[in-house]
Amino acid sequence: MRGFRITLRTTLGISFLVLIWLVVLHVGNFLSRPDRLRRMPHWSNFGRTGERMVVDEPLLNTATEPPLILGRNFHHMQYGLSEEHEKRRNTIERVCDKSTHGYYGRSDGSKLAKKLVIDHRHRIVYCAVQKTGSTFLRSLLGIVKTSEKSDLDSRWIHNKRKNMTDLTNFHYILTKSCKMMFTRDPYQRLFSGYVDKLFTVNTMYWKTTGTYIKNKLLNRDQEPQTHCGHGITFPQFINYIIESEKTGVHTDPHFTPIYEHCRPCQISYDFIGKMETFTNDSLTLLNAWNKLYGINVTYDDFEAETALSRAIGHTGRLYNMRNGLEKCISFYSGMQRIWKDLQIRGILTKRAKLPFTESEANNVNRTQLVDILTKAIQKSSMDRTALRQQQTEAMIQAYRQVPVKDLLRLREVVRPDCELFGYEVAPNYIFNRRDSSHKLSSFKYFKIDE
Ligand SMILES: *[C@@H]1O[C@H](CO)[C@@H](O)[C@H](O)[C@H]1NC(C)=O
Ligand SMILES: *[C@@H]1O[C@H](CO)[C@@H](O)[C@H](O)[C@H]1NC(C)=O
Ligand SMILES: *[C@@H]1O[C@H](CO)[C@@H](O)[C@H](O)[C@H]1NC(C)=O
Ligand SMILES: *[C@@H]1O[C@H](CO)[C@@H](O)[C@H](O)[C@H]1NC(C)=O
Fold first, then answer.
1. Are strands 178-183 and 271-274 parallel, antiparallel or unpaired?
2. Which positions, given as ranges, span the membrane (predicted)?
3. What count of other Cβ atoms lies within 10 Å of the Cβ of residue 323?
4. What distance in angstroms lies between residue 6's CA and the mean position of ligand 3's atoms?
5. For residue 174, what pLDDT band results from cuts at 50, 70 and 90?
6. Cα(304)–Cα(288) distance, rounded to whole angstroms?
7. Is 110 near ligand 1, meaning CB less than 6 Å away?
8. Straight-line distance from the first to the last Cα atom of the chain, in angstroms, rounded to the nearest whole number
C-alpha cells in the first residue's frame, strides 16, 4: 500500500518492557480465563450445527506454554479500547447467549479457517470479510507482520511450523491470539456489493452472477436487453440475495452475512471494528501494535487514499476489461459506469460531469483518465459533508425501488448481522418511505446512457 511509512524503533528499554508485559499477561490471563474459554469451539466438532460448544479445560498447560494474549481485561488496557468497543463485544455476547441455534449459518470449519489471516509472530488473527475494508486491513497486517525487529517469543514462532490443517494446532493459535474482525451495516454492505460487482464495470461478475440472475430469476418481461448479464437493477439484485439465502444456491461471499464468515458466537473476538468508524478503529489497532511491538507503522489520510486507489483501480478495470466490455456495452457507457460509481460512493461530487463525448471517450487513454479523475476527486474532497450526504442519497434512491414485500424479506436475511453487530434491523431511511427528512434527489445515480 502506498503511503505507509515504516521505521523501526529499537531500544534496550523495550526488551525490559516486554518482559514486564509478559508477566502482566500471565496474571491478566489467569484472572480472565473463565470468560475466555466460555465460547471457544471444540474443533473436532467444528462445522456441526446445533448447540454452542463449550470447552471446559484449556488444551494447554499455561505454566509451561507461552502466556495467552487474550485475556479480556488485559486487552482493554493494552489496546486502549474505548467503552464503545466493549459495548460491541457485550452486544455479541448477549445476543449469542439468548440464541439456541448459535448462529452458524451455512458456514463450515474449513471455510472459516480460510477466512482467517494469521500473523503468527504478533499473534494476531484477523477474520477477513469481503466488503468490510478487508483489502486495506490485509495490507496493514502485511506491513505490521514484516516490520518487527525482535522475536517476542521463539516458542510461538516455532509452533507455526506445525501442520496448520491440524485443528488442534489451529485451536492453539486461536486461544493465544488477539482475534479481530470488522463489521458493516448489512444494508450498506449489500448496496456496496451491488455497485461494485454488478453496476460498475465488472465483466467477470456480469458473466457469472449477472447471467445467473438473468436466466434463473427474472421473468422474460423483466429481462434487461442484454446477452451479457450487465444491467441488473438493484431490486433484481435484492431478489437474488433473498433467493440465494433461502436456497443456498449461488451464494457469494461478498454478499453472505458477516456472522457466517466469522462465527462470532463460537469465537470470542477481542476486537470488533466497524466500517462506520474505520479510521478510528484501525488507528486504535495500529497505535496498540506500534506500542506493543516497538514498531512505527503509520498511514496518511485513509479516506483520501482509498478514494484515489478506487479511482485508479476502476480505471484499470475499464481498460483491462475493454475487449470483453465492448462485446456488451460501449466503452463510453463503461466510462460512465465508473464515473457514476465514484459519485454513488461519495468520492466524486455529483456536480462533476464526465468531460467527454462518446467519440472523444474512445480515444482517451488510461493515464489521461486517471489524471482527470484524480483532479476531480481532489476538488470534490473540499466538502466531505456533502459527499457523505451524496452517499446516503444514492443508497436511499436504490432502496426506494425495492418492492416493500422484498424489503420485508430482506430484513429477515440481514437480521442476525444487525442484532449481533448493533445495527438497526429496519432503519428509518429505508423502511419509512414517508420520512421527509431524506429528500429524494433528482440526480439519477443509476442512469447510464447506453
Ligand atoms: C497435515 O495433517 C493432515 C491431517 O491431519 C494430513 O492429512 C496431512 O498429510 C498433513 N500434512 C503434512 C505436511 O504433514
Ligand atoms: C476513537 O474514538 C474514541 C471515542 O470517541 C476516542 O476516545 C479515541 O481517542 C479515538 N481513537 C483514535 C485512535 O482516534
Ligand atoms: C514514526 O515515524 C514518523 C514518520 O516517519 C516520525 O515522524 C515519528 O517521529 C516516528 N515515531 C517514533 C516514535 O519513532
Ligand atoms: C496518453 O495521451 C496523452 C495525450 O494525448 C499522451 O501525451 C500520452 O503519451 C498518452 N499516454 C500513453 C501511455 O499512451
1. parallel
2. 12-31
3. 9
4. 8
5. confident
6. 23
7. no
8. 35
Q: Using a 6 Å cutoff on CB, does residue 425 contact ligand 2?
A: no
Lowest mean pLDDT among 46-55, 119-128, 308-317, 343-352: 46-55
In angstroms, what is the span from residue 333 Cα to ligand 4's centroid? 22
- Closest residue (by CA) to atom 1 of ligand 4? 365
Would you list the DSSP string of 378-434?
HHHTT-HHHHHHHHHHHHHHHHHTS-HHHHHHHHHHHHHHHHHHT--SS-HHHH-TT
Q: Where are the alpha helices (DSSP H) in 120-163?
A: 134-146, 154-159
* Structural domain boundaries in the chain: 72-148+162-185+255-304, 187-252+306-413
Can you tell me the mean pLDDT for 289-315? 81
| Lining residues, ligand 4, CB within 6 Å | 365, 367-368
Q: Which ligand is nearest to the CA of 81?
A: 2
How many other C-beta atoms lie within 10 A of the C-beta of residue 122? 20
Best residue for ligand 2 mutational test, from 76, 79, 81, 82 (most atoms within 8 Å of Cβ): 82
Q: What is the pLDDT of residues 272-283, one digit of tens each?
A: 999 999 989 999
Residues 6+ apart with CB under 8 A from 269: 89, 92, 127, 179, 180, 181, 262
**With contact defined as beta carbons under 8 Å apart, do 67 and 107 qualify?**
no
Q: Whose CA is nearest to atom 11 of ligand 3?
A: 296
396-411: average pLDDT: 97
Q: Is 247 helix (H, G, I), strand (E, B) or coil?
A: helix
Q: Kindly state the helix (H) or strand (E) to which residue 183 belongs, with its residue range.
A: strand 178-183
**Cα-based distances in Å from 241 to 133, 198, 254, 351, 397:** 21, 13, 11, 32, 18
| pLDDT the model gives residue 342 | 95
> Which among 450, 399, 449 has a CA at the least distance from the CA of 187?
399
Q: At what angle do helices 366-380 and 302-320 cross, to 10 degrees?
A: 150
